[in-house]
Amino acid sequence: MLWKYDLRVLTYVTAIAEEGSIGAAARRLRLTQPTLSRQLRELEERLGAELFVRGKRGLTPTAAGRALVERAARVFAEADAILDDVSAVARGLSGRLTVAFAGSGINGRLGMALSRLRVELPDVDLRLVELFDDVEMSGGVLDGTFDLAVHRLPVHDTKLTAKPWVREPLALFLPAAHPLARDTAPVEVSAFADVPLLLWPRDSAPRSYDEVISLCHRAGFVPKVLQQGRTVQTILALVAAGFGATVMTSSYRTLHREGVTTRPIRGTVSMLHLVHRARDTSPLLARALAILDEVVPVPS
Questions:
Q1: Which of 21, 52, 71, 253 could serve as a FRET partner for 136 with CA atoms 20 to 30 Å apart?
Q2: What angle do CA 21, 23, 26 make, to 5 degrees?
Q3: Can you spell out the DSSP letters for 128-163?
């Protein structure tokens, strides 16, 4: 059947139809006339149909010939599209990119970076997944659920590459009426030793929870965790209501929660990382990482 032939046989039929003669088509195709005649004859025998009739102006396609030429044009267009699509994927201009991120990222430079990805890679299927747990994000990269994760506390694993990306301090979010809220200058960790802290449950974000607890322990006190919330909005609402304070990255200040005052915590540094599989050779991932590096240069 026809599909056992390669595209050349469709090229032959199209050239004969366009040139109106086997001789002219053979010259265009750089074939000998007997070779092209044989190819046409074998195709007609397989199809059981005559494709051309000889008239005053040379060879004219029959109804079957016209149908084949018209369909061939669509096949050629689709073949070109296939090559274009494959080339785009090979150059990292097409395909699917799944990015997991934490709120601390999207409230900072990540939002700008994702906007640039969308503009510069319009043919990419960009899928975004918001998560709160650093362990879950790193695990998703390892098992292939995500191509890239942007978060602060990646799991240490030789199969992962965690590239430092954006640096920012941690901050203390206080009720606006609290005495410590009278100033917006950086605050020492020890200054909020007596302030009840509102944190997320450890089972939902163990690495982030432990980070805050360790910060307090290094300052010489055991924090009093008074309330817990499972979302940033809930925690900030409790802060605004006067239940206590919370420690988060300073980028959450962009939420501008009414009734909440923010003070950077002196001596703290939080780093967002670009996390991907160490041996991932995807051209799309490489291009995306290059764009992200242009938005925020990697710290030295």
A1: 253
A2: 110
A3: EEE-S-HHHHHHHHHTTS-SEEEESS----TTEEEE
Please indicate, yes or no, whether residues 162 and 176 belong to a single structural domain of this protein.
Answer: no
The average confidence (pLDDT) of the chain is 89
Give the pLDDT confidence score for residue 179 in this predicted structure: 94
How many whole angstroms separate alpha carbon 246 and alpha carbon 226? 10
Q: Is residue 186 part of a domain?
A: yes
Give the model confidence (pLDDT) of 44-63 as tens digits.
Answer: 998 899 999 988 888 999 99
Pairing label, strands 260-264, 170-175: antiparallel
- Residues 86, 149, single domain; the answer is no
Q: Which two tokens stand for residue 181?
A: 């809220």
Q: Is the pTM of this model over 0.90?
A: no
Which of the two residues, 275 and 202, has the higher pLDDT score? 275
Q: How far is the C-alpha of 136 from the C-alpha of 248, rounded, in Å?
A: 19
Task: Answer for the pair 121, 283: CB distance below 8 angstroms, yes or no.
Answer: no
Where would I find the H helices in 162-224? 206-218
Domain that holds residue 141: 95-167+271-295
**Which run of H or E residues covers position 40?**
helix 33-47
- pLDDT for 297: 55
Three-point CA angle 260, 262, 265, nearest 5°: 145
How many structural domains are present in the chain?
3
**Residue 300 pLDDT:** 42
Nearest-Å Rg of the Cα atoms of the chain is 32
Going by C-alpha positions, the residue among 235, 232, 197 that lies closest to residue 216 is: 197
Quote the pLDDT of residue 184. 87
